[in-house]
Amino acid sequence: MDNPEYKAIRYEVRCWEIHQSGTNLASQPKAAISHDHPVLCSTWKEDGTTVFSGGCDKQVKMWPLGGQPVTVAMHDAPITEIAWIPEMSLLVTGSWDKTLKYWDVRQPNPVHTQQLPERCYALSVRYPLMVVGTADRNLVVFNLQNPQTEFKRIVSPLKYQTRCVAAFPDQQGFLVGSIEGRVGVHHLDEQQQNKNFTFKCHREGSEIYSVNSLNFHPVHHTFTTAGSDGSFNFWDKDSKQRLKAMSRCNQPIPCSTFNNDGSIFAYAVCYDWSKGAENHNPATAKNYIFLHLPQEAEVKSKPRVNTGGKR
After folding, report:
1. I want to staple 37 with a disulfide (CB 3.0 to 4.6 A). Which of 56, 75, 228, 256 is the partner?
2. What is the pLDDT of residues 254-300, one digit of tens each?
């Protein structure tokens, strides 16, 4: 049955050019491509010339900026995560079809298909470390120097569904965030297990919100969490401190990222569908992308203050 309201929906990937002059930022739309169904993930090639995007149409499009997009990857179910691995010149894709696939984008077929224990929910790469979070709280670790074999599989230290993961910049471990407003800090070395811990965040009284995005600062290696409470915070895992808590937005933050030198933190503000379509009001739920200029005091690590308490 034709639904004119459905036909009006456009699924697009848009590129914006950001101009910075001191503390002033300006954005300029440059180009856009369309997908047939919702887009769930995107990533850049390391030289900034190419964008990859995938989603519910079960394919990944490679878009050379200024050129035409071409399909370079396919799955049997929606594609939820993608990452370009410059050290291997390969694209990795994770899907709800319970597989990872590695692609040489010059070839039509994957160079390797890796079975996962469940649907892929999250993925992070810091070569040679790759961490994949799946349904049923599985966390699968790969050494990309031997990508066809799992390096380690663990059950998440968090009790509820995984939403996001972030590999440490030094490749020695990873962060995991979940729908329960909690983050786990996990080291891979068995000798470092005493450094593992979890902490609560994105909570207000009895209200608990999902942690949707984790990002390490590319210079200082502190990190941010962004959540469905509409806030983002800066943290230092080594001193176990929150460096800065930002004021809340009036809608959830479903995704966020730093630019390549950490001078800009970008985050999206929009309805996250966690309360269902019946609670979505298009008249009031506008979609925004905000840019924040992190101050050094917000992202630079500080010595730990020992208060004798526990988190």
Report:
1. 56
2. 999 999 999 999 999 999 988 888 888 888 888 999 999 999 999 99
Is residue 277 in some structural domain? no
Distance CA 103, CA 175 (A): 26
Mean pLDDT across 121-126: 98
How far, in Å, CA of 249 to CA of 219, rounded? 26
Provide the token pair at 48: 């900034």
The total number of structural domains that make up the chain: 1
CA dihedral 218, 219, 223, 224 (to 10 degrees): -70
3-class DSSP state of 272 = coil
| Tokens matching residue 134 | 């799946």
For residue 46, give the CATH number of its domain: 2.130.10.10
What pLDDT, on a 0 to 100 scale, did the predictor assign at position 280? 84
Exposed/middle/buried for residue 190 (C-beta within 10 Å: 0-12, 13-18, 19+): exposed
Q: How many CB atoms lie within 10 A of CB 39?
A: 18
* Domain interval for residue 36: 10-115
Tokens 């995005």 locate to 213
Would you state the pLDDT for residue 304? 73
pTM of the model: 0.92
Indicate whether 276 belongs to any domain.
no
